[in-house]
Design brief:
By secondary structure, the chain is an alpha+beta fold. It has a single domain, classed as Cytidine Deaminase, domain 2 (3-Layer(aba) Sandwich), CATH 3.40.140.10. It contains 3 helices and 5 strands, in the order αββαβαββ. The longest helix is centred in the C-terminal third of the chain and has 16 residues. The protein starts with 5 loop residues before the first helix and ends in a 7-residue tail after the last strand.
Length: 124
């Protein structure tokens, strides 16, 4: 499947966050043509904010020879707005990925039926 837009990513990922009571992180690994190579997901410990496991994300991308990534996580609170920690962690991952010729295309935040794109918000 080609993931050409945030809308494509939302459609592909939204079922990963439905009916989930805790926080979850999903990472799409994309080839040079934006074809999905894999999707990794992991649950985040209760009470923990999303601290992106940058080393693990990059290691998985390199193993798959990914050229692009799309992150997504949910906010069980119901507020899809990115926190300052979400923005800082996303930008740190984008810098590391870019140094390895991997593009972070977007970071989506799901909350209930809503979804926000950090790229669309101008934060990435």
């Amino acid at each position: 499947m080609i993931v050409a837009s945030a809308r494509d990513a939302r459609t592909l990922l939204e079922h990963h966050f439905r009916h989930v009571s805790g926080e979850r992180l999903a990472v799409l690994h994309l080839g040079p043509d934006r074809r999905m190579l894999a999707c990794d997901e992991s649950d985040i410990a209760p009470g923990a904010s999303v601290m992106l496991p940058i080393r693990e994300i990059i290691a998985a991308a390199l193993r798959r020879d990914a050229r692009g990534l799309i992150l997504a996580h949910n906010h069980p609170s119901g507020d899809p707005g990115p926190s300052a920690a979400d923005i800082a962690a996303t930008r740190a991952l984008a810098r590391v990925a870019a140094s390895l010729d991997i593009r972070l295309h977007d970071h989506l935040i799901f909350a209930g039926s809503e979804c926000r794109s950090l790229r669309a918000l101008g934060l990435l």
